């Protein structure tokens, strides 16, 4: 029997520590880790977050101090202004392409931001390098078309 579950992990800005992860065996994430077993980012294990921009959130999982970059499908302007976020998942509690990030504590109603990818990264610098590499690849694909 498949059990569908929803989990909301509300995180406050005060929980956003320096998100560095010293792990010599891993370089910056090169592939998305959407719900792939051991690399599953479980919403109920998130211990902090830091908004990079309106499409990217760096989250820290308390399990083995892992850091992930969550990319949304579209611009999510309320990310920068909310005092907290909720991550709502369905299924096995892994943050995947069916998950939503919901900015909280906004005076007006916030709209959910749907997740596009989840990537394991070492730190914010690695996340920003991955964002830039993807932007450059997208430009190169557009120029060659």
Please describe the structure with a list of short key phrases separated by commas or semicolons.
7-stranded antiparallel sheet; 145 residues; 7 strands; alpha+beta; globular
Beta strand count: 7
Q: What is the succession of H and E elements?
A: EEEEEEEH
Strand content: 35-45%
- Using only C-alpha atoms, the radius of gyration works out to 15 Å
Shape: globular
Major sheet description: 7 strands, antiparallel
Distance between the termini: 46 Å
> Order of strands in the sheet with the most strands?
1-5-6-7-4-3-2
Task: Write a structural description.
There is one protein chain. By secondary structure, the protein is of the alpha+beta class. The chain has one helix and seven strands; from the N terminus they run E-E-E-E-E-E-E-H. The chain has one helix at residues 124-144, and strands at 5-12, 46-53, 56-61, 66-72, 84-91, 100-104, 113-121. The protein has a seven-stranded antiparallel beta sheet, covered by helices on one side. A hairpin with an 8-residue loop joins strand 6 (100-104) and strand 7 (113-121). The longest helix has 21 residues, at 124-144. It is globular, with a radius of gyration of 15 Å. The N and C termini lie far apart (46 Å). The model is unreliable at 1-31 (pLDDT under 50).
């Amino acid at each position: 029997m498949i059990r569908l579950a929803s989990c909301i992990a509300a995180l406050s800005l005060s929980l956003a520590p320096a998100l560095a992860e010293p792990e010599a065996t891993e370089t910056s994430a090169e592939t998305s880790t959407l719900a792939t077993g051991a690399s599953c980012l479980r919403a109920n294990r998130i211990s902090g977050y830091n908004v990079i921009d309106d499409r990217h959130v760096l989250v820290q999982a308390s399990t083995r101090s892992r850091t992930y970059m969550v990319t949304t499908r579209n611009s999510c302007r309320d990310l920068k202004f909310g005092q907290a976020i909720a991550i709502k998942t369905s299924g096995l509690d892994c943050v995947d392409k069916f998950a939503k990030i919901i900015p909280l504590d906004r005076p007006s109603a916030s709209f959910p931001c749907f997740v596009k990818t989840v990537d394991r990264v070492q730190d914010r610098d690695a996340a920003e390098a991955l964002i830039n590499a993807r932007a450059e690849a997208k430009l190169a694909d557009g120029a060659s078309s």
